[in-house]
């Protein structure tokens, strides 16, 4: 079984495309919480309210960090998606963390991010443009077969 952690932007259905495309492969997926409100508010909902937005966000980042670290540490492969709409600083951090841990790293990004992400891309074993390419890599890793 291949364990794959899907990190990055939460505004498109790229995770669902990969999971659907990988049906039939011996793959187990994990991911951060993708409900934006729950992710932002988990710290204050669990640990108590904060008047200062910095500490509100800080508590959320710490609680989310527990899940993120576990997911990356337990993964064989980490896929990090950088989307069009927002700058995903957390995704860049996840890519760096995965790389530092020696994880196989696949980046999923549009071409217009190539220059900005050149250092992240240099740490990856593959840079893809479409979720289907990630599925093709997983299939190749597990079965040694090329796309048809």
TrEMBL record:
<dbReference type="Pfam" id="PF11071">
    <property type="entry name" value="Nuc_deoxyri_tr3"/>
</dbReference>
<protein>
    <recommendedName>
        <fullName>YtoQ family protein</fullName>
    </recommendedName>
</protein>
<dbReference type="InterPro" id="IPR019884">
    <property type="entry name" value="YtoQ_family_protein"/>
</dbReference>
């Amino acid at each position: 079984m291949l364990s794959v952690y899907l990190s990055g932007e939460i505004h498109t259905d790229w995770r669902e495309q990969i999971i659907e495309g990988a049906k039939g492969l011996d793959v187990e997926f994990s991911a951060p919480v993708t409900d934006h409100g729950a992710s932002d508010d988990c710290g204050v909902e669990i640990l108590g309210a904060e008047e200062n937005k910095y500490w509100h966000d800080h508590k959320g980042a710490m609680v989310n960090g527990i899940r993120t670290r576990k997911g990356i540490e337990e993964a064989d492969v980490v896929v990090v998606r950088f989307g069009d709409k927002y700058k995903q600083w957390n995704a860049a951090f996840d890519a760096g963390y995965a790389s530092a841990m020696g994880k196989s790293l696949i980046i999923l990004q549009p071409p217009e991010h190539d220059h900005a992400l050149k250092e992240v891309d240099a740490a990856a074993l593959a840079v893809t443009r479409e979720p289907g390419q990630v599925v093709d890599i997983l299939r190749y890793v597990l079965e040694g077969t090329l796309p048809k």
